[in-house]
């Protein structure tokens, strides 16, 4: 293995599949991986411009980027995406299970039915399982691979002032799923997670100014993160710089969980 720190972080010759790649944290990850040299299987759900975004990224980074419509709550769609990506690229070295949704229904007893709860679990938890299952099949056959989950500090603490028990529970499960798979798959793959704190993306648009002010007041660094400030952790976990790292959860939250 090379001891050159820059070559350790290179992804040249590797293929990465990223779900939820059309915007926010997912796009920042895909962009970083592409510029580090990886070809990208670009998973998206409903973005009307995802195909164009993927093509622009391919042109900017001089790599192959193929867009796949992949609603992660649908196990058949996830399986089809992996089959198509494997046929296209011949291998998949890195998988980032990033797609997720927030809970905006308020306290758990508030919603009149179970649809909101089921939707959050379908995407955040079940979707993570479906992605992991397909990634694991490929990694085991290859004898190597790196699976990275986007979890959240909401899996570690209870956020306030918003009431989001469902979201918190889903992310706690994702974090522990990553740790469990790290042990089960230790002979052929590495599994880790990244737990971002408050980050400026489309997912946080539900919050009004008062709620955002409360978030910032509780963050020691006094601001929310930009997606680009998270990508170093993903690059580390995807690259040969982390070949002895598995079962880790990297918290990037401006100090929020320390106070």
Whole-number average pLDDT?
96
CATH homologous superfamily designation: NAD(P)-binding Rossmann-like Domain
Task: Fill in the CATH topology.
Answer: Rossmann fold
The rough form would be described as globular
Annotated CATH architecture: 3-Layer(aba) Sandwich
Helix share, percent: 40-55%
What's the end-to-end separation, in Å? 40 Å
Whole-number radius of gyration?
18 Å
Largest sheet features: 7 strands, parallel
Family: Belongs to the short-chain dehydrogenases/reductases (SDR) family.
Keywords: NADP, Oxidoreductase
GO molecular function: mannitol 2-dehydrogenase (NADP+) activity; oxidoreductase activity, acting on NAD(P)H, oxygen as acceptor
Pfam families: adh_short_C2
Secondary-structure topology with pairs:
Blueprint: H1 5-8, E1 15-18, H2 24-35, E2 39-44, H3 50-61, E3 65-69, H4 75-89, E4 94-97, H5 115-142, E5 146-150, H6 165-184, E6 190-196, H7 209-218, H8 231-238, E7 249-252
Parallel strand pairs: 1-2, 1-4, 2-3, 4-5, 5-6, 6-7
Helix pairs in contact: 4-5, 5-6
Family: Belongs to the short-chain dehydrogenases/reductases (SDR) family.
Keywords: NADP, Oxidoreductase
Pfam family, one: adh_short_C2
């Amino acid at each position: 293995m090379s001891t050159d720190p820059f070559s350790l972080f290179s992804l040249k010759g590797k293929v990465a599949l990223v779900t939820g790649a059309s915007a926010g944290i997912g796009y920042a990850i895909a962009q970083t991986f592409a510029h580090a040299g990886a070809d990208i299987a670009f998973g998206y759900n409903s973005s009307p411009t995802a195909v164009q975004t993927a093509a622009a990224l391919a042109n900017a980074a001089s790599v192959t980027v193929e867009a796949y419509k992949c609603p992660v709550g649908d196990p058949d769609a996830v399986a089809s995406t992996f089959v198509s990506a494997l046929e296209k690229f011949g291998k998949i070295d890195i998988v980032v299970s990033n797609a997720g949704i927030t809970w905006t229904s308020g306290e758990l007893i508030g919603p009149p039915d179970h649809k909101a709860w089921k939707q959050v679990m379908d995407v955040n938890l079940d979707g993570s399982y479906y992605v992991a299952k397909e990634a694991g099949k490929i990694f085991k056959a290859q004898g190597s691979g790196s699976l990275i989950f986007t979890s959240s500090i909401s899996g570690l603490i209870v956020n306030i002032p918003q009431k989001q028990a469902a979201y918190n529970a889903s992310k706690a499960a994702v974090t522990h799923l990553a740790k469990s798979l790290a042990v089960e798959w230790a002979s052929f793959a590495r599994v880790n997670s990244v737990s971002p704190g408050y980050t400026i993306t489309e997912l946080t648009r539900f919050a009004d100014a008062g709620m955002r002010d409360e978030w910032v007041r509780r963050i020691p660094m006094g601001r929310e993160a930009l997606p680009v400030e998270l990508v170093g952790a993903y690059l580390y976990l995807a690259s040969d710089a982390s070949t002895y790292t598995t079962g880790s959860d990297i918290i990037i939250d401006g100090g929020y969980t320390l106070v």
